[in-house]
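Input (structure):
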């Protein structure tokens, strides 16, 4: 195996040492070249384990630099100019007929709203809704109180009671709630 079959970054010396020695010395010290326009950056590494770590950390560092490099967003040269909505339009001519029609409609709407709010049907429905709300709240409280007593947790817990007292307490809660 001659030096022509090796990659271009490994160059074999012309001395007469053994092939494995030549390869190991050159693997310990190899160069990485990155061509850019008119410049050539080269970097040499003396030990392969540190080279591997450096090979992994360079792209990470570049990614973090790009990610953390914050520049303000530019919306363009008109970003500070307000839109057309901020410019008041021309004053339109006032038509008396339309103005009177609008005022009459507003009066009718206000009268209808007042009459609806004072209607006995609406008052009855609001009272019914309030009663249902209170009833549902009490039912839910009773349900969770019974469950807490059975499980031995919460405000209605029967934890310190004997089994007979616990059964009487749970039965009283169920009777009060109307369960069973």
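Output (sequence):
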């Amino acid at each position: 195996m001659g030096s022509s079959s090796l990659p271009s970054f490994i160059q074999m010396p012309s001395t007469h040492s053994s092939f494995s020695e030549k390869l190991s010395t050159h693997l310990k010290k190899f160069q990485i070249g990155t061509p850019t326009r008119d410049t050539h950056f080269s970097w040499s590494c003396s030990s392969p384990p540190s080279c591997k770590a450096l090979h992994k950390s360079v792209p990470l560092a570049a990614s973090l630099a790009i990610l953390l490099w914050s520049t303000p967003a530019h919306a363009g040269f008109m970003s500070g100019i307000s839109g057309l909505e901020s410019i008041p339009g021309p004053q339109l001519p006032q038509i008396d007929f339309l103005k009177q029609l609008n005022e009459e409609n507003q009066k009718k709407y206000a009268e209808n709203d007042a009459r609806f709010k004072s209607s006995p049907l609406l008052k009855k429905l609001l009272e019914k809704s309030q009663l249902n709300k209170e009833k549902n709240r009490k039912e839910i409280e009773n349900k969770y109180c019974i469950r807490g007593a059975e499980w031995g947790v919460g405000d209605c817990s029967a934890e310190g009671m004997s089994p007979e007292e616990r059964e009487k307490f749970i039965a009283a809660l169920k009777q009060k709630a109307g369960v069973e």
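Notes: The chain is about 55% helix and 10% strand. Residues 59 and 65 are 10 Å apart (CA to CA).
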